[in-house]
Write a structure and sequence with these properties.
Elements (H helix, E strand, L loop, with lengths): L4 E5 L8 H15 L4 E5 L6 H15 L1 H14 L6 E3 L5 H11 L5 E5 L7 H9 L2 E6 L3 H19 L8 E9 L5 H13 L3 E8 L34 H12 L2
Helix pairs in contact: 1-8, 2-3
């Protein structure tokens, strides 16, 4: 493949925020940091990101408030929405390559993957990316599943040299503020012993991550593929800090 930075947001556990993390990273990098971004949605059969984009476009057609939000962002940044390409798992790498062959090369190309590792096509995509972000929650089943996933990536793909992966990083997501910080320190130390890198930034469990645009409601929008997260809701979300940490990891 050509030379964008390829990123997979992946885990074998559903419901840990893979698609939400992909949208927030892509939108913040594109609209706020000024990078060129593309996304391949190969999380079949739901294709939640591609359908989210389609829904947002339809909502904009029916809501003057949303149209103005998108127009204001374009006026300020001179950046149109980044492409979201729908693909099957089998064709995901070919879909990405076809896009790169026919367009200017983005800085980052994200793959939104289904919650499984027991699939040859998923493993093949992971083998070809440069960075893997694994969102994880402090739930026993999510932890067991996430650690198993990370061990496989480290042992079968990274350590063996059978991939292009430069780093795998766990992202603590949906962190309940009532949970003891000491608990996460113990988890971090345990994963460090296994050779699993954990990012310092933790994303809280907050309703703002589900605050999308609405054709009926005139409200601030946090999660969108057409505009960046609303500034008034960024504080305490961890998104700015996560992006800055991600850029340090990728040396961008």
């Amino acid at each position: 493949m050509n030379k964008p930075i390829l990123v997979a947001v992946s885990s074998q556990k559903g419901g840990v925020g893979k698609s939400t993390l992909t949208v927030l990273l892509a939108s913040y990098l594109h609209f706020v940091k000024g990078y060129e971004v593309a996304v391949v949605d190969c999380d079949s059969p739901q294709h939640s990101l591609y359908l989210e984009r389609e829904r947002e476009i339809k909502d904009c057609e029916e809501s003057e408030f949303l149209r103005k939000q998108v127009f204001d962002v374009f006026q300020k940044t001179q950046k149109r929405a980044y492409p979201i390409l729908m693909s099957s798992l089998t064709d995901a790498l070919a879909t990405a390559q076809e896009y790169l062959d026919g367009n200017s090369i983005p800085d980052f190309l994200f793959f939104d993957l289904p919650g499984t590792i027991n699939n040859f096509d998923v493993v093949d995509i992971l083998r070809n990316v440069h960075y893997v972000l694994c969102p994880m929650t402090a739930d026993r089943y999510a932890l067991e599943s996430g650690i198993s996933f990370c061990n496989y990536i480290n042992n079968a793909l990274i350590t063996s040299g059978n991939s292009a992966i430069r780093q795998l990083s766990v992202v603590w997501n949906m962190v309940d503020p009532r949970e003891r910080t000491e608990l996460y320190r113990i988890y971090d130390e345990f994963m460090a012993e296994l050779g699993i890198n954990v990012m310092e930034t933790r994303l809280p469990n907050s309703v703002r991550f589900r605050r999308e645009g609405s054709r009926e409601l005139k409200r601030a929008i946090f999660r969108s593929t057409l505009i960046p997260p609303d500034k008034t809701q960024l504080r305490g979300s961890g998104v700015e800090e996560l992006v800055d940490e991600f850029l340090k990891i990728t040396a961008m």
